[in-house]
Amino acid sequence: MRMTVIGTGYLGATHAACMAELGHEVLGVDVDESKIKSLQAGQVPFFEPGLPEVLERNIAAGRLDFTTDYAQAAQFANVHFLGVGTPQRHGSFAADLTYVRAVIEDLVPKLTGSHIIFGKSTVPVGTARDLQELANSLAGPDTHVEIAWNPEFLREGYAVQDTITPDRIVLGVREEASRAEEVAREVYAQALEASTPLLVTDLQTAELVKVSANAFLATKISFINAVAEICEIAGGDVVALADAIGLDERIGRKFLGAGLGFGGGCLPKDIRAFMARAGELGADQALSFLREVDAINMRRRDRMVDVAKRALGGSVLGRRVTVLGCAFKPNSDDVRDSPALSVAGSLSLAGAAVTVYDPEGMDNARRVFPTLAYATSASKALQDTELVILATEWQEFRDLDPAAAGELVAARHIIDGRNVLDVAAWQAAGWTVEALGRNL
Ligand code: UGA
């Protein structure tokens, strides 16, 4: 099939490359010239394992190209995926739909014939219906445009795998004559042959599935972090507790990783936009618990700063602190709303001399927080430091040898912000180990 993918950020660039990998002919579209130039040259403008290979292979095979020209996109195909960003609106919890609407406004007047636009962006419930009205008002007399919603569930760090072999495909279609399911079945033929469930719903349900999934994941993380707060006071161990409750298959161990909490470009803004939309619908109460989910999450960062201060005798002023990790999670260079970078920044603003090391996130972090010191390796970051904070659980940090690391530092004191270290091994090497939600 021929298709365009409009928006070439995380979601769009991955979707475009992976659709080509499935054998489709794909044109990626973005208004950002530099992004398009880089993608045309086979370079992924962010870190995503496996994606550069998929991109290069499909450009070379002639199945994948990129453009900034909407007229070319309108000519190229009758199927379009919309994957632009829906960031948090400045000064509000609501989602900013400017980019989503701009795609419809730019594309639809250029279309002729019959087209389907599959929305993939995370949007407030009701958006697809509004976009259909907008499209109807912009389409020429002989042009027919259908808007369907096909939310995306990919995780950064596993984006290729999640796109090629998703665990489910959700498709929201409008009530009146819809061709979306038939077309989607062709787009996703490979996954459907492998028995991937396809759930066809109305537009509103599809929009809500996406935000509900992210709200549930955020709630699960904040639940265990709330229990971590109790463990810290009452003297429990949140890791053992998570293992124990996670064995109940109704609960499950995934997303019960207690520590610095969630960040990134999705979970934080999505729970806020969900609350904002509930308010607009007159149902604030239904989602007011998400305020607490957000608050618990943000408190973990403060708690880490407090533990660090206490570890250094009450103040970090003038003290040398190393923060391992600044990406919001491992296998990503994304620092948007990163708990790790937030902690590094707070400690620096409290007067500490903070050195950061992250395998991939430092270029992005430097743009957000240029005043931190960035080391070129973990060993260099550890050199002569008085306190180490493990803030993002990269495998490289999990694999650190406590004895060798101990030779580098000025004081063997580490705070495990992600509960991933082998505490006994670190203690045996002479380290004082602290962690969130545990009394070690
Ligand atoms: C999330 C969802 O998992 C995807 O399904 C969704 O498609 C995506 O948002 C999106 O809306 O685009 P992602 O933001 O890539 O994906 O990251 P996650 O793997 O969900 O992790 C989010 C945050 O939670 C990270 O900061 C991570 O460190 C934290 N986390 C995760 C915990 O603190 N504890 C856990 O047990 C798990």
UniProtKB/TrEMBL annotation:
It comes from the Bacteria. One of its GO terms (biological process) is UDP-glucuronate biosynthetic process. Substrate binds at residues 153-156, 210, 255-259, 263, 329. The keyword Transport does not apply. The keyword NAD applies. Keywords: NAD, Oxidoreductase. PANTHER family: UDP-GLUCOSE 6-DEHYDROGENASE TUAD. This is UDP-glucose 6-dehydrogenase.
